[in-house]
Design goal:
Elements (H helix, E strand, L loop, with lengths): L1 E2 L1 H10 L7 E4 L2 H11 L4 E5 L12 E4 L2 H11 L3 E2 L2 E2 L3 E5 L3 E12 L4 E7 L6 H7 L4 E6 L7 H8 L6 H20 L2 E12 L4 E3 L3 E4 L8 H4 L6 H11 L3 E4 L4 E5 L2 H13 L6 E4 L6 H12 L6 E8 L4 H15 L5 E7 L2 H9 L4 E3 L2 H15 L1
Parallel strand pairs: 15-17, 17-18, 18-19
Antiparallel strand pairs: 1-13, 2-7, 3-4, 3-7, 5-6, 8-9, 8-11, 9-10, 11-12, 11-13, 14-16
The structure holds guanosine-5'-diphosphate and manganese (II) ion (MN).
Manganese (II) ion binds next to loops.
Length: 380
């Protein structure tokens, strides 16, 4: 889960990581009031979206007058950055930058630890630095049992500074950031740029944080920041019902039992030049109620041209699945074709139940997928 810059900055502040003065605004009027409240000639207007690269997209502007504040806020609030509408901006103190650095903590899966990355090339995309001048990125793996004691934080700080005042400021930032990462189960805490101001202070001028979704159950205050997109909303809804669901871009709705079979189904659809609308693993049980719920979930998606049900009966009994499908059909009045492939335990019984229904029942997976792709093309 990602959060906005202003949300990350509120966490930074509560962990003693210095940020510039800023006020969150939802309208031009609010931005103007914020400009008056900050009482500075120059302010920055920063679009708040859950996507990177907003500076390049025109989402960061220096305003030197009330008119500028109005104009920039107004145009940003009509803007989309990477397809995401901008609904809020930060009006913040314009900082006098001496130097820009990059600093982040993320998860290094290979080394099973948190990794700190620091670079004197801040403000630009770190991927570019990694590609062209990797020697300018200083990396330190943080041992989870040692954490970030003074001696390690100092060693890192000396990579950038000789001046003891700056070293001390940097040590505080490193220790607080690491603590924030651990306390909140973050998967990324990034400051780009971390700036040294002309006045000699280190400030986090931008703030990016992501969190481990699997840990959100114990992070109430972080969940509070959550703003799921429509697609994520659907995925959460499915998860609450015990399904594993991933939203995809196509028009063939899939209902499969088992993640492996679901993946194989996606592959076979693609191989036949169709496009799945989702990955849906309904799991092992063949409770007819579950089938109805899954069907309901699929039918909420109005992009679907056809539904493909691919079931391998192991513990799952095909006759149970068939009964669930019939019940779902009765309840939901689906008006799109449904192709069913049932094989395994009680397959004969299952197929017999469906024979007199409106479902298109096939014997093999290949047949089912081809039929579904053809129907999707015909409807397309
Ligand atoms: P991003 O594009 O989403 O990463 O937006 P940032 O908030 O990181 O801003 C992009 C760039 O704008 C920074 O690297 C700075 O060079 C510049 N910038 C942002 N805030 C200020 C500021 O207060 N003063 C000055 N002089 N430049 C700023
Ligand atoms: Mn940035």
């Amino acid at each position: 889960m990602k959060i906005h810059e202003y949300q990350a900055k509120s966490l930074f502040s509560s962990y003693g990581i210095p940020v510039e003065q800023h006020i969150l605004c939802h309208s031009e009027e609010e931005a103007l009031a914020a400009y008056t409240e900050l009482d500075m000639e120059k302010v920055m207007i920063k679009a708040q979206v859950l996507a990177g690269g907003r500076g390049k997209a025109g989402g960061v502007k220096l305003a030197k007058s009330a008119d500028d504040v109005m104009n920039y806020t107004s145009s940003m609030l009509q803007m989309k950055i990477k397809d995401l509408p901008v609904t809020r901006v930060l009006v913040s103190e314009a900082v006098n930058i001496e130097t820009e650095f990059y600093l982040s903590f993320s998860i290094d899966r290979k080394n099973k630890s948190v990794i700190m990355m620091l670079s004197s090339e801040g403000g630009v995309e770190i991927e570019e630095v990694a590609k062209y001048t990797p020697e300018n990125i200083y990396k330190v793996n943080i041992d989870p049992f040692i954490g970030m004691p003074d001696y390690i934080a100092r060693r890192i700080a000396f990579f950038l500074f000789d001046d003891m005042d700056l070293v001390n400021q940097m040590v505080q930032i490193l220790q607080n950031m690491y603590q924030l990462m651990i306390d909140k189960d973050a998967s990324l805490v990034e400051i780009n740029p971390l700036v040294l101001t002309e006045e000699g202070n280190l400030i986090a001028l931008d703030a990016k944080m992501s969190f481990d979704d699997s840990a959100l159950y114990r992070q109430e205050d972080i969940c509070f920041f959550s703003e799921p997109t429509e697609e994520e909303e659907m995925e959460l809804h499915a998860k609450a019902k015990g399904f594993s669901y991933v939203h995809l871009t196509g028009d063939i709705g899939c209902m499969v039992n088992g993640a492996g079979l679901a993946m194989a189904t996606m592959d076979l659809i693609k191989l036949n030049e169709g496009c799945p609308a989702n990955f849906l693993d309904i799991g092992g049980s063949s409770n007819p109620k579950k089938i109805t719920e899954a069907m309901k979930l699929l039918l909420e998606d109005d992009r679907l041209k056809v539904i493909l049900v691919n079931i391998f009966g192991g513990i799952t009994r095909c006759d149970d699945v068939a009964n669930g499908l019939l019940k779902a059909y009765e309840l939901l009045h689906a008006d799109i074709p449904v192709v069913v492939r049932l094989t395994g335990t009680n397959e004969e019984e299952g197929r017999a139940l469906l024979r007199s229904s409106n479902f298109l029942v096939t014997d093999t997976m290949g047949e089912a997928v081809r039929a579904a792709v053809n129907l999707s093309i015909k409807a397309g």
